[in-house]
User: What shape does this take?
Amino acid sequence: MKIYQANIVPLNEQVIGTAAHGTALFTINGDTLTINIEMFDTPDNLQHWEHFHGFPDGKDAAIATSAQDVNHDGFVDLPETGAVSGTTMVPFNDAPHEMDIPNDAYPVADDHGYFAYTKVVPLAALDEKFKATFNDSELALDKRVIYIHGVTDDVALPATVAGAVGHYDAHVTLPIAVGKIVTL
Ligand SMILES: [Cu+2]
Assistant: This one.
C-alpha cells in the first residue's frame, strides 16, 4: 500500500473573499486508487472543479503562489499556474480514470462552503488512459499538485483573467486552493 497526502492552502483568497483550505489523501492499494478530499471555506453552493496538475516530462510540480500573478492583475489565473504547476491531468469528478476534464460531474460545496469527495478508481484503467494521454509517463503522484477551482459569477474578474475551457469561463477555472502531493 502506498499513501500520499496534500495539505491544501488558499490561493486568490484576497480577491475572492474566502480562504479555501483542506486536505487530500490518496491510497494505492492493489488495483485501486482511493481518493479522499475534504475542503472548507470554498465559495458556497457552487460546483468546484478539482484535478491534479503536473508536468508530463516528470519535472516536479510546485504550488502556485501570488508570485505567479505575472500580469499583476491581482489574480493568479489557470494559465499563470502552468509555469510552476504544469498542466491539468486527472479530474477528481465522478470518473477520474476517464480523464474527461470539462464537465459538471465535480463536487458541490454546501451552504458553508464545505464538501467531501471520495472516489475509488480502477488503477489499471487510470494508468492506461494516463499513459495514452501523456506519452507513457507515470502517474507519479509525488510530483503533482492538487488544484481546487471555481468562484461564483458575481466575482468581478478583470478582462486579463484567462482560463476559459470550452463553454466554461474563467470563473469555473479560477484556482482557489492548491496543495503539493507528498508521500506519507
Ligand atoms: Cu485543475
About this structure: The first helix runs from residue 13 to 16. The pocket of copper (II) ion is lined by residues 49, 51, 53, 88, 147, 149 (CB under 6 Å). The first strand starts at residue 2 and ends at 10. The CA atoms of residues 79 and 163 lie 6 Å apart.
